[in-house]
Amino acid sequence: MYKNFYQMQKEPFENDPLTNIFYNSRIHHDAWRYLARGMKKKEPVLFVTGEYGTGKTLLCLKLVKIFINKKSIPFVFIPTPNYSFHMILEKITAVLGISSSNVNSQDEQELLNIIYEYFEKIDNTSGKYIYIIIDEVQDISYLFANKLKLLLSFNCSEHFPFKLIMFGHMNFLEILDRRNLISLRQRIRKIFYLQPFGFNETKEYIYFRLIYSGASGTPVFEDSAIHMIQSASAGIPRLINNICDTCLVEAGRRKMDSIDINLVKAIVQRNLPPEKRNISAPVTHEPVQHIVEPQKNDGPDIRLNTEINQIDPARENILSNHTGHKYTKENSSENEFTPVTENKNNKEKSGNSSLKKIFDKKAGLILILICIVAVLSYILFLQIQSDGIPQLNKKIGENIMKNKGQIVCCDNIKTIYSADTAARYLYMTDESQYA
Q1: Who contacts 102 (Cβ-Cβ below 8 Å, separation ≥6)?
Q2: 319 in the same domain as 188
Q3: Do 381 and 418 fall into the same domain?
Q4: Beta partners for 159?
Q5: Do 255 and 314 sit in the same domain of this protein?
Q6: pTM of the model
Q7: Which residues pair with 131 in a beta bridge?
């Protein structure tokens, strides 16, 4: 496979949502802010939606991981809509430490009763909450959604202890409207929509994945090829993964170091379903060439020829003084003058002297530049020897980490891709933004 050819340690374009290769794009960064603000304001329901393959499940798993690490916020995670409501109640009792030994744990209503009693007995001013996190919420049943609505409605002394965070497709809202679950629909006050990637995000996402795989420097995706990938995938990360993985398989087979637009176009035509083959021509930024049509040649320019043939002695003197030649109308063509050369040998010597001066100046500048480059190279060599890593790459990596997810590092992503271990490590390992 291409992993050996490109010296990769990991698969770069896996479709399984793995939290250790979470690409914090601008839109995903905004989604994090939406979740953080909503939880801080104690919003009853938060809903992150988007097209299939835009990273909803990965966001959900990242959130669950942070909940687990904090260990201070009780929560229940429902990874699939196949869970029954009874299973959710059992999880809630286990998380809150509620004993169910004195009740029939198979009775859903009895489980609800002991949960309600638990919140009624505690001090409501303590702000005790439990979060219910549901992924793929668009596939839950009507009965499940109705019971979930009733659970969210429970309160004691104006305290609503149940908070809901959902991840799913946008058609979930249509399902709520169609199934007469308007009250649950109205509780979703704020919705965040995950938009597909643009060109800059697609480019950085591809190289982010390549850096994660361990590749350094090769393969390279040409910008025109990335434009094609973004267009064909509509900016959906899952489809980007599919296209790039197939491109690497073919490029590895051909032993190519650069992936161009022709290869991408062939892959798209061969693998994507017809409805996804949105392969419009990539956007280019070449300057517009203004074409000037030549005018028809209807004969010589009488006016110009007349002016040339009627040059007066004053103009002859001006031309002679300006060029160093004496002009005469004798033996001249209609459109030019014949210079009369004087002191030819002196002129040639003067020209050679001028060329020698220019050459001496250029040689001096080149010598100075060579000295500067030599000094800078020696300083850089000493720095590498003393620190063990090139500070230039480290600075680039630190700058990218400060702005990661804001798409300001797209121009530098190829530099990081071919940089040393330190810069790549800084780029890939920043958990502080999720705290």
Answers
A1: none
A2: no
A3: yes
A4: 156
A5: no
A6: 0.66
A7: 75, 163
Digit-coded pLDDT (tens) for 65-122 = 999 988 888 999 999 888 989 999 999 999 998 887 777 878 889 999 999 989 888 7
Q: Identify the domain boundary among 137, 166, 194.
A: 194
Q: For residues 428 and 404, give the distance between their C-alpha atoms in angstroms, rounded to a whole number.
A: 10
Using DSSP's 3-state secondary structure scheme, residue 6 falls into: coil
Q: How many domains does the chain have?
A: 4
* pLDDT over 60 (residue 319): no
Q: Which of 194, 229, 249 is the last residue of a domain?
A: 194
Q: Which two tokens stand for residue 386?
A: 């003393």
In a domain, 247, yes or no: yes
CA 115 – CA 111 distance, rounded (Å): 6
CATH code for position 269: 1.10.8
Q: Is residue 6 part of a domain?
A: no
Are 337 and 388 within one domain?
Answer: no
Whether 146 and 229 map to the same domain: the answer is no
8 A C-beta contact, residue 265 and residue 271: no
Provide mean pLDDT across the span 282-310. Answer: 39
Kind and range of the H or E run holding 250 = helix 237-254
What tokens does 382 get? Answer: 């000493």
Residue with tokens 């429902």: 78
Do 177 and 37 have their domain in common?
Answer: yes
Token pair belonging to 96:
């809150």
126 and 240 in a single domain? The answer is no
282 pLDDT above the threshold of 60? no
Tokens representing 409 are 């590092």
Q: How far apart are CA 79 and CA 76, in angstroms?
A: 10
Strand partners, 198: none
Strands (E), 247-346: 258-259, 326-328, 338-340
From the list 341, 344, 337, 345, the residue with the least C-alpha distance to 319 is 337
- The rounded radius of gyration (Å) of the Cα atoms in the chain is 36
Q: Are strands 220-221 and 190-194 parallel, antiparallel or unpaired?
A: unpaired
- What is the token pair recorded at 287? 């300057």
Domain range for residue 173?
26-194
Mean pLDDT of 152-175: 89
Is the domain of 379 the same as that of 422? Answer: yes
d(CA 271, CA 276): 10
